[in-house]
Design a protein that fits this description.
Blueprint lengths: L14 H15 L5 E6 L9 E5 L4 E6 L8 H17 L3 E7 L14 H18 L5 E5 L1 H8 L5 H8 L6 H15 L15 H7 L2 H18 L4 H4 L2 H18 L8 H23 L7 H26 L2 H6 L2 E6 L5 H14 L4 E5 L9 H9 L6 H15 L3 E6 L6 H17 L4 E8 L3 H4 L11 E4 L7 H11 L17 H13 L8 H20 L15 H16 L4 E2 H12 L8 H7 L3 E6 L5 E6 L2 H16 L7 E4 L2 E4 L3
């Protein structure tokens, strides 16, 4: 790829901003002996775009100017002004890099060329610094010097990002995420977004402003009450060390650089502090005679309060938040319908709306058994590059935006995922671990974890595991929100059914209630049955569309109900709790083929939330089918048995073989 500086990709609506950012990225990677820290400076920049601090405290600074010519004397004046500002704001500056996408002409024909002016101006600036009692050297990064660095293999992705014409623009990322969200269909309903704590983990992955603000608030809340302990306790060395450690971790959290939190040190000091509080509390009991009652009560109160806030702070420390900030590899698992796809789509959508970059891929689109990178680059994103160039380009984009870029693959158990991920996933994760500004998120249905991401393959030091439990412990708040969105009357007694912790069930329940024309939750079997009937009718209406199975959803041709009854019949006759996936397809095809020549009816019922597909460990990872919700299955089963065995002329008792249905009180 040729590098033409006039074609550098605009960043924050400016090629000048883009050039400055590229220079800072190259400076960050520059091998400098005894470098301790590196800082990217936001505007106003104090005369440098970035600077590094050496072990001895001295500094190197970089100044970038996106000039197309140096013939205008005002350009030299701008550089002079920047240098003088840097000299003032950085008292330990000893080296100043000036970066311009121009080579210094030096024809040596007796005329004043760029190299001559450079030598003259830098000597003036050296003298100016000496008059201020400073010694500063200058180094020039022109077009040749910059291209030389970009030509290194480690910068291949950076080169691809900044100088590709279409890929990796804001519009490119936006289009990619929007298309994936559209392909999710009903699995993402933005108007039904109920905020859950699990969403905060993605801020930690990104290391964005919300994460920094949250860490600041958690620490402030803790220290505010902890420092109310009396001076006798706080003056001890272990207390001073603890507060000093937390202050240092706060500094790390607020920096734009991706520095690691010392989690083990924080946890150890918390344990020490908890023990010390207990010892101090015990010592007070032995000093009752020395202290007034008011003083003793005050100390006891502050100790109890310190205990309380310490426990809350430890909950934060022990949560996945800080581990994800350190190790940005997230494996998100959960049962069917828990809202994993909705959560990931919502996270990606919000990132794009904030004008940040994100990648969202769907497991259903991995349709071959080729390696993940082959499918991602050739089939899904259609990019002409290898994975190193691709990840390097994403890393450059993330570095430019100042927060990690989330690379999300939703539902790796879908599509052909169960056939290839196990053999590639460890290497796939390792590819991302080489790029500090990238965060990888993989979601998976719980029943496929042992097949695709077992702990012996991906131990805790390789990835952080988080379980999405849907609306567990917030069922009342979530159902109240959903009912208000669907204009359904709030029940007088909170709903305690476990299914209401499942977001998909709650959504289907509300949709069924609305389609049945009801605004109040019905009581008894008949009411629930009407909701389920309307839900199934809506699925029939959708699947009967000419673009899908193209059948008439008349009462005599309710294919969804016919297939459900066939599956229920097979389960009852064979005393099964589930049906093998391949067999379920055969059962459905025997019925559907009479009305439509299309296939995959079972997969459509899975997509619509009627059925679930999982891997069975009792059957050597054989894929199985079962009804998505136990309450729905109970009604399907009862409905089938009543329809088949109930003698309407004698409804009090129906007997056939070993099946007995008694309707007597």
């Amino acid at each position: 790829m040729s590098i033409e500086w006039q074609n550098i990709k605009s960043f924050n609506n400016s090629q000048n901003n883009a050039f400055e950012e590229l220079v800072c990225q190259l400076a960050r990677e520059e091998p400098i002996a005894n470098r301790k820290e590196f800082y990217r400076v936001a505007a106003p920049d104090g005369g440098v775009e970035a600077y590094c601090v050496l072990e001895n405290g001295e500094e190197y600074g970089w100044q970038a100017k996106y000039f197309s010519s140096m013939k205008d004397s005002s350009k030299w004046s701008q550089i002079k002004e920047s240098f003088e500002t840097a000299l003032e704001t950085h008292p330990k500056l000893i080296k100043y890099y000036i970066c311009i996408p121009l080579d210094r002409q030096d024809p040596r024909d007796g005329k004043q060329w760029f190299i001559d002016k450079w030598n003259k101006k830098t000597q003036e600036w050296v003298d100016y610094a000496k008059n201020e009692g400073r010694n500063v050297t200058f180094e020039y990064w022109g077009s040749s010097e910059l291209i030389h660095r970009l030509s290194e293999e480690k910068h291949a992705g950076r080169r691809f990002f900044w100088f590709s014409k279409e890929e990796f623009s804001r519009e490119w990322f936006q289009s990619q995420v929007e298309n994936s969200i559209k392909n999710l269909g009903h699995r993402y309903t933005p108007e039904l977004n109920f905020e859950l704590d699990v969403a905060k983990y993605f801020d930690a992955l990104s290391r964005n402003k919300r994460f920094r603000e949250r860490f600041k608030n958690e620490l402030h809340t803790f220290l505010k009450d902890f420092k109310k302990l009396d001076s006798e306790f706080l003056s001890q060395d272990f207390a001073k060390d603890f507060i000093g450690l937390l202050d240092g971790q706060f500094e790390i959290s607020q920096k734009s650089e991706l520095l690691h939190f010392d989690l083990e040190a924080i946890k150890e000091r918390c344990r020490v502090m908890e023990n010390s509080l207990g010892e101090y509390q015990t010592s007070l009991k032995n000093r009752k005679s020395e202290l007034s009652e008011d003083s003793l009560n005050s100390k006891k109160f502050s100790i109890n309060k310190a205990y309380s806030v310490l426990l809350e702070f430890r909950e934060f420390i022990d949560s996945p938040t800080l581990p994800l900030a350190n190790l940005p590899i997230l494996l998100l698992s959960g049962e069917a319908g828990m809202g994993k796809s909705h959560l990931l789509a919502d996270i990606a959508s919000k990132i794009i709306k904030e004008n940040k970059a994100c990648i969202l891929l769907l497991g259903q689109h991995f349709t071959s058994e080729d390696s993940p990178w082959t499918q991602i680059l050739n089939n899904l994103l259609r990019l002409k590059c290898n994975e190193r160039e691709f990840l390097g380009a994403l890393n450059a984009r993330a570095e430019a935006q100042g927060e990690r870029l989330l690379f999300i693959v939703d539902a790796i158990n879908e599509g052909k995922g169960r056939y290839f991920w196990n053999g590639h996933i460890r290497g796939f994760i390792n590819d991302f671990s080489k790029y500090p500004w990238l965060a990888l998120v993989l979601s998976i249905r719980t029943s496929y974890e042992k097949l695709l991401i077992p702990k012996e393959l991906i131990p805790d030091e390789v990835a952080i595991r988080v379980v999405h439990r849907g609306f567990e412990n917030v069922e009342y708040q979530a159902s109240s929100f959903f009912f208000s969105q669907y204009d359904i009357e709030q029940p007088s007694i909170p709903l305690l059914h476990p299914e209401f912790s499942n977001p998909l069930f709650l959504k289907l329940f509300c949709e069924g209630l609305r389609r049945s024309g009801q605004k109040r939750i019905p009581k008894g079997y008949g009411g629930i049955t009407s909701i389920i009937d309307f839900f199934l009718s809506s699925v029939d209406d959708k699947l009967s569309h000419p673009s899908l199975f193209d059948y008439q959803p008349a009462s005599s041709k309710k294919l969804v109900k016919k297939v459900i009854n066939a599956l229920i019949r097979y389960k009852l006759q064979n005393d099964l709790s589930f049906i093998p996936y391949e067999l379920a397809i055969d059962i459905a095809n025997n019925i559907v083929s009479k009305f439509s020549n299309k296939k995959d009816f079972v997969d459509s019922l899975i997509s619509e939330g009627v059925l679930s597909k999982n891997a069975s460990w009792k059957k050597d990872n054989e894929e199985i089918i079962y009804f998505a919700y136990e309450r729905f299955e109970d009604h399907f089963t009862a409905d089938y048995l009543l329809e088949k065995y109930l003698d309407k002329s004698h409804p009090e008792v129906a007997i056939q073989g070993d099946i007995v249905i008694s309707l007597s009180p």
